[in-house]
Amino acid sequence: MARVKYTDSDVALVARMMRAEAEGEGKQGMLMVGNVIVNRVKADCLDFRDVRSVYDVIFQIQGGNYSFEAVQKGNIFYNRAREVEKRLAKQTLDHWREHPSKFSLWYFNPYAPCPPTWYNQPFAGQYKQHCYYEPIADTCESVYGW
What we know:
Elements lengths: L7 H15 L3 H17 L11 H5 L2 E2 L2 E2 L2 H5 L9 H12 L11 E3 L8 E2 L2 E7 L2 E4 L7 H4 L2
Antiparallel strand pairs: 1-2, 3-6, 4-5, 5-6
Helix pairs in contact: 1-2, 1-5, 2-5
């Protein structure tokens, strides 16, 4: 059973985002970005109370900007999804979860060492250039409950 309900269009959106945000970090890095997207769909807390679909997550606006830099700046996000990324996206939507993105709701590339917190949320770990952050358990139990 899939972790979240999705359509072929959702698979393509996740695939495009994975490629745009983490192509340089290989398949594992792209899977981690996809996992954060799925976690945001599943989370019912913090900034993600009103996002219930892949589309909502990818095009969410926070502070007047899109949540994901790739959507905001365009870069390769607006290219068509390739088959390799579609397979990875489907894998993440269906079952894939791994540390440090397993429970993470945020990631970013600081172009420096990872800070110990990000918007007051604890550092979960790093994969190549991206730092991953999990919510504090008592502020977002829904992330840890499935």
